[in-house]
Batch of 2 targets.
Target 1
Amino acid sequence: MSPAVPAGRTLAAAATATALLAAALGAHTVPAAAAATTGKVLVIGVDGAVLDRVKAANAPHLQGLMAQGLTARSTLYAGPMAATSSGPGWSTVATGVWPDKHGVRDNSFTGKNYAAHPDFLTRIENARPALNTYAAADWEPITSTDQNGPIFSAKVDKRLSLKGDRDGYRTEDPKVAAAAATELRTQNPDAAFVYLGEIDAAGHSYGAASQQYLDAVARVDTLVGQLLTAVHNRPTYGQENWKILVTTDHGHIPSGGHGGSTLAERGTFVIAKGAGIPAGSVRDDVKLADVAATALAQVGVAAPGIDGVPLGSPDTDPFDTVRPALRTRVDETGIPAGVKGFTHTPPAGWSVDNSKMGTGGVTEWAGWAFATDEFWTQSQRDQWRELNVRSRDVFAVADSDEWDDKTHTGTFDSTLVTPKWPVVGGSTRTLTFQTHYRHETGQTAQVLVSYNGAAPAVVKTYTADAVAKADSIALQVPAGATDVQVRFRYSGNNNWFWTVDDVRLG
Ligand SMILES: [Zn+2]
């Protein structure tokens, strides 16, 4: 998609903003003029909100944002990376990096590393101190200096901290919303975060399946409406380019509660409205870390190295193109019958060599497969599959552990083969990909490279865990070579797994 340039922008400003974005995005392609110098952003955090219950509730404002913008469902980590609880969840939203970087694994905040990975409002203050930042919350670790966080630092221009606790959110949320609405309408915030806690409290008290939970969603929706009205009623609204994001920190099981590894607890979403976001759009490649990245891009602040990607950045991962071919389960009876989440059909130009594979085994994992997180992680929980946080949408999976759960001959030995990419002899190219590998003796995971059809040579062998890692391998292209082909070979016998995603030759 190519967002239109908002009226009143100069070409120089556009070039500067685009350059900043390019720095922030690294390898990602930047659409022309994705940010505006008049860009402003409001992030609304609704704790413990389940997307399907938001859709079912009397929630005209949240549903209106979905109709006018983007709805993107995604999943979180689970232990041992982090619990599906508020500390890690809001830290991920605020910092744009996953818990293995920001360090918050549970609500003790032990190990927090906000110094290296600050919240997006603090990043804005560091880069553009003239901009106005605002945060308001009634869960104290978000904004209170005397609590475990604070997730949003004292560098934020103005912070409001109230104390909701379990039953108090119903009275404190309206105070947060009223104060934030006044700020948004009468002051000049460039970036704001507003937190509302009552939905989570209702989940704990009554369960996500309850009428009380729907009622809490409806009350919070009214407060969201107050915030949207405040933005719309700004005297200068017509000259401003607002992006509105709504997100949550974790899900809830139907009977109430979270922290564990079920899909209900790991469920999150991003709702977004603003220039360049098609009305009624739905995406599968957006993750929670993208909230901060989008907010930063909106105000033209670079954030090199964060995990999040701005919403305006296009999805160019070839694995995601196989989504229409995804199928429902065959042998994996633990995965809900309606979930379409795997295929053995590779993207155009790619292939899988199963000539060394044994026969039989669990159909879904007979050789490299292409699968979604929702599907793969439900094959077996709590074995680190949930830790694959840097893969997006569809990724490639080789899983000898799951394959072995049904009678087979031989061992798992499968090779994923890329297209032949053109190269120039004597140059250096960088192969990058997201990898998630759980190691065990007896397993092999190798990256091999072949130039002009010559015998593949091993350029990398994994001998230890590589959990949710962005990997990169420098390739020295031999003189005279005109193409390169990369292979990912995995073999094992009831060992663990390897996933790769977003494979690129830079
Ligand atoms: Zn909770």
Note: Residues 48, 86, 200, 204, 258 surround zinc ion (CB under 6 Å).
Target 2
Amino acid sequence: MNKYKNTLEECSKIAKREYKEVSKKLKKVKKDLTFSQDILVETILTFNNSDINDKAIYDSINEVNNKTSELLKNGFKSFEKSFSKKSDNLSEFTVTLFGRTKAGKSTIREALTTGDGSTIGKGAQRTTRDVMIYNWNHLRILDTPGFDAYKGEEDEKIAFSQVDETDLILFLVTSDSIEESEFEKLATLRRENKPVIILLNVLYDLKHPIKRKQFLSNPKKHVSRDAIIGHLSRLKFLSKKHFDIQNISVIPIHALSAFESNHSKGEQKKKLYETSNFKYFRDYLTKEIETSGKQKRVQSFRDSYIFHLENSIKPVYEDSYKSLKPIVRLLQNKQFELRNWFDKFIPDKNDEIERDINKLFEPLFNQLDFFVDQNIENSDFGDMWNNIVNKHIAENKIKLIQESIISDMNRYLEEFFK
Ligand SMILES: Nc1nc2c(ncn2[C@@H]2O[C@H](COP(=O)(O)OP(=O)(O)OP(=O)(O)O)[C@@H](O)[C@H]2O)c(=O)[nH]1
Ligand SMILES: [Mg+2]
């Protein structure tokens, strides 16, 4: 018992440490993502202020940005809500009962906590409609509304909302019918990688006195590993298929016996308790917590962190990436096209400029010899030649060459940005 209690105490410390650690990580992720969001906003502003200012592209990026911001805000909200919920119960190890309606979840809980039976279903109706919290054996036990009830979608949502807080799932199935749909339902909970133990409630009516006597005289015939061997391979198969758990633990129990044992005396009490197999169930749970409770507690935080990142944050970025990709590709293509044009335009224009300049100066060269012969004696020789050159340049409008290059370039760019 000491080892068990010590483990739970350590679990509680681990939970506090993990909570801090994960909260820190969460803050960091939020900061990083906000930063990346800011970059996008900055890009949009730069784009908007640039000459490109293409309205269609601007609107697309802006729309992606708004959508991403909104989704991200919601993603973080659910992320933070889940973590603040966890912070309320850091010191407790939480075990949750899940399963089909009328499988006997509340009966188990009543049996464990010596209840008066008031929460056990009486008729054919689903009974537990909200998550009920109890304490047993230093654990926090949650009894949830069952799934697969007629019009029970709301109840299922309530039950499933509890998974985040759970360190260990007790999945209750009954021997009369093991439905694949129950496994499919629970599979959605397993996405958070919660550890699962199956409790197989072996149904057997205790009302009929003779049948009851027979049952209690040889409980192993019904409630034992050998007795459920026929169900075992199916349960393992379904667990592999839907939970990806290779060798799931299955514990046969008789919940009603355990409950009745609490309200019986003497030999009957002993017999009923023995029949229920609750001693084995309790010992198994104790051992499980002693051996892997700490790891389960760490797992609860880390897996839930990963789960939320994977499910609330990652899809937002994947969507944003998908929407931005074609825009980025379009801009990259345009950039490539522009660069190609420049690569060709510059040498072409260089040749053209060289030709134009040569043409422009040709007449000057032609008259240079004559000018030298005529004016060599003149002391203003230098200034006179400068005047001729300047006049020639002004008359021949060297600016025209410049303007023609600029107008060629503008024409192309206008066409390009259209
Ligand atoms: N015939 C028979 N009935 C049983 C046995 N064990 C439990 N029951 C009955 O099955 C029903 C189980 O009820 P609950 O324990 O309330 O079931 P639950 O899983 O909590 O159901 P919800 O709260 O609706 O999700 C009760 O009416 C029990 O009396 C059994 O071994 N044989
Ligand atoms: Mg119930």
Note: Residues 2-79+319-323 form one domain.
